[in-house]
Amino acid sequence: MERRHPNVIQLHAELKERGYTGSYGTIRDYVLPFREAGAAPPAVPGPPKARDLARWITADPDHLDDDDKTGLAKARERCPDLDALAGHVTEFAKILTGRHGDRLDAWIAAVEADDQPDLHSFVRGIKRDYDAVLNGLTMPWSSGVVEGNVNRTKMIKRQMYGRAAFPLLRKRVLLVS
User: Fold this and answer.
1) Total domain count for the chain?
2) Residue 83: what pLDDT?
3) Would you call 96 exposed, middle or buried from its count of C-beta atoms within 10 A (0-12, 13-18, 19+)?
4) All residues at 6 or more sequence positions from 18 whose CB lies less than 8 Å from its CB, including other chains
5) What mean pLDDT, rounded, does the chain reach?
6) 55 and 28, same structural domain?
7) Which DSSP string do the residues of 78-112 spell out, in sequence order?
8) Does 167 fall in a domain?
9) 123-173, pLDDT tens digit by residue?
10) Same domain, 32 and 62
11) Is residue 152 part of a domain?
């Protein structure tokens, strides 16, 4: 004779109310291993969010905490494409931060040999302006100061839009540093 468990009966009734069409035996068989173990198994953690993956991949590994390093390692272990992507991004970051323009051609060849469509698009953009990119990755000079001043001027212009005439804008740009 089949032994009926009150909690399973109640669970089956609740599931039937929600549209479940299976039998009591199916629910009982599903619940039995948990009952024997004494507790439900721990929940399987979900996959990391795309935002977290992007942050982990693009961040300097020295600035990641242990949980982030573990999460990235697990994600790279589970997905070979993600592992390849992270490797290419890390290598490009080394080229960029160390101004190793001499490694750019090898990096481009490695990316083109791999199946990473988004990186292929990035490489096409680099190739369109190859000389400028190579100079930026090699030479110590930068247009950062000029870009900073352009950004500051645009910010002042946006703040003043519709509020004052050109003479005040001119004074703010020339006098505010």
Assistant:
1) 2
2) 94
3) middle
4) none
5) 88
6) no
7) H-HHHHHHHHHHHHHHHHHHTT-GGGHHHHHHHHH
8) no
9) 999 999 999 999 999 998 888 889 998 999 999 888 888 888 888 888 888
10) no
11) no
At position 68, the amino acid (one-letter code) is D
Angle, vertex CA 7, rays to CA 6 and CA 13, nearest 5: 90
Whether residue 175 has pLDDT greater than 90: no
Q: How many Cα neighbours within 13 Å face the side chain of 133?
A: 17
The one-character DSSP state at 140 is S
Please report which confidence band the pLDDT of residue 1 belongs to, taking 50, 70 and 90 as the band edges.
very low
Name all contacts of 132-136 with Cβ < 8 Å and 24+ positions apart.
Answer: 133/104, 134/101, 134/104, 135/101, 136/101
CA dist., res. 104 & res. 136, Å (int): 11
**Is 170 inside a domain boundary?**
no
Give the separation between CA 92 and CA 111, rounded to whole angstroms. Answer: 10
**Residue-wise pLDDT tens digits, 56-65:** 999 998 899 9
Amino acid at 22: G
What tokens does 33 get? 């291993």
- CA terminus-to-terminus distance, the chain: 89
Domain with 55, as residue range(s), is 50-128
